[in-house]
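Subject: two folds for Thursday's group meeting

Dear M.,

Sorry for the delay on this. The cluster queue was jammed most of the week, so I only got both jobs back this morning. I'm pasting them in the order they finished. Each block is the input sequence followed by the predicted C-alpha cells. Could you check whether the formatting survives your parser before we put anything on slides? The first protein is the one we discussed after the seminar.
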Amino acid sequence: MQRRRLAVTLAITIFSLSACGKKAEECVVMLDVANKDIAALKTAAAAKPAGGPKDLAAAVRATADAADKLVIDLGKKGPTTAELQKASGDYQAVAKAVSVAARAHGDSLDDLLAVQPKARADRADPDRKSLTTAHDAVKQRCAEHPGFECKAITAVMVKVSTIIDKPTDLGKLDAELGKVKMKDPALAALIDKLRGSITGLARTLTDVAAAASEMKDVEAKVAAASAAVDAALAKEAPITASLTAFCK
C-alpha cells in the first residue's frame, strides 16, 4: 500500500514537472515573438515621416505589414497551455485590428493626396490671368474704337475686379455681357473671348471650392483612421503584462 502511494506521488510529481517544463518552453517561444514582432510593430507605428501624405501612407502600411507578420508568426507556434493559447489569440486579434485600421489609414491618406492638388487656391491663377488679359483687350479696343456698345460694356466690366473670386457673380457678369448688342465684329470677338474666360474661371473656382470641402471631409477621415490605429495598438499592453506575469 505504501509503495502504491509512493508511486502515485512520484507520478504526480513527474507530471507537474513535465507541465512546468512545457509552460516554460512555450513561454519562451511566446515571449520571443512578443519581444521581436511587437517591438517591430511599435517601431513601425511610431514612425513619423516628414514627406507628407505619400510617405505617411507608406509608413502606416509598414505598420500593417508588421501586424500581419505578428499574426503569421503566432499562428505557427500553436501553444498547448490554455493561458498561452488565450494570449496568442488575443495578440492575433489585436494585430488584425491594427492591420485593418492601418490599411484604412493608408487609404485615407491616398484620398487626401489625390484631393490636395484640386483644392489649391492657385489652381485658378491661369484662369484669372486669361480673364485679365481678355478684359484688357476689350478695354483697349474700346479705347481705340469707342462706340455705343463700349459704354454699355464699360458699365458692366467695372465689376470685374471686385468679383474675380466669386463664381456666382462671374456667372451674372457673363449673362449681362451676353445682353449687349454688338455691331463691331472685332469687339464682338473679344467679348466672346472674355465671356469664355469668365466661364472658365467660374468653373475652376467652383471646382476648387468643392475640392476644399472634400478635403476637410478626407482630413476628418484621416484623423479618425489614425485614432483607430492608436486605439488598436493600446490593447496590446495589457496582453503583454498578463503574459509576462504568467510566465514568471
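Second protein, same layout:
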Amino acid sequence: MEKLRNEQLELFRLKVRMTIEQWAEKMKVIVAENKAMGMELEGIKKMKESEKSVWAAEKEALNKAIKLEAGGLINRIYQASYLGEL
C-alpha cells in the first residue's frame, strides 16, 4: 500500500530543518569567534544562559522563523480546505 504524503507538510518540515541547521551553524561560528578572541569556555556557557546575549537574540530569531513557517503552513491548509482542495 502506498504511503500518502502531504506536500505542504513535507515542505514545512524541510524549511524548519534548514532553519534549525542554519542556526546551529551560526552558533558554531559565534562560539569559534569567541574562542578566537580568547574567551574561556565558562564565559561562553554563561553567554548561552544569559537573556541579553547574542545567543539569546539568535534563539529568539529562530523561534520567530519557526513560528512564521508554522503560520504559513496553517494558512495554506486553511486556504486549501476553504477552496475544497482537501
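Two things I noticed about the second structure. The chain has a mean pLDDT of 86. Residues 43 and 86 are 52 Å apart (CA to CA).

Cheers,
T.
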